[in-house]
Amino acid sequence: MKNIAKTFIFLVMLTSVVSCDEKLEQFPTNAFASGTFWNSESNALIALTGMYRGNINYGTQVVPSDWWTYCGIVFLEFATDNAYDRRGDNSTYNRLTDGTLLPNNNVVNGYWQGSYRRIAITNDFLENIDNVDMPEEKRERMKSEARFLRATQYFYLFSVLGRRAPGDLHLNSGRSQHRTKISEIRNR
Question: Whose CA, among 50, 68, 102, 180, lies 20 to 30 Å from 132?
Answer without folding.
Answer: 68
